[in-house]
Amino acid sequence: MEDRQIYMQKYREEYKDRKRRVTITMTPEEHQLFSLESEKLGLSIPETIKHMALRYKTAVPLIPAANQKIADELKFLIRNLGNNINQIAHNMHLNRHLYGPEANAHANRVLQGLQDKLHNLEEEMSSVFLLHGR
């Protein structure tokens, strides 16, 4: 019996040297996201989080290639929208003398609203890519 205790003590010490336990806290919504992803991958939640973290580190996407193609297209379109908004703003500022101050102020508010919405969309897309390893 004493040999077993000595063996287990030695095993635990060696295990602690080889492995680290990490505890994380998440909201119920975040837990549900990981739970859904776990079911898709057929892994436990801790295994999924570890898998995703390692994939993120090596930049290997977790999402299927077809979805990745759509996601890349969305990123491209978002960038194009941003460029178009900047071109409109630039053109508007060059020609501001043609319009009255009220029209310029209104156009500035509209452009700022578009830029804010585009920024929010970019952040949402970034969080999706972050979750899926891109």
Automatic annotation (TrEMBL):
Origin: domain of life: Bacteria
Coiled coil: 104-131
Keywords, alphabetical: Coiled coil
InterPro entries linked: NikA-like
The protein, known as: Bacterial mobilisation domain-containing protein
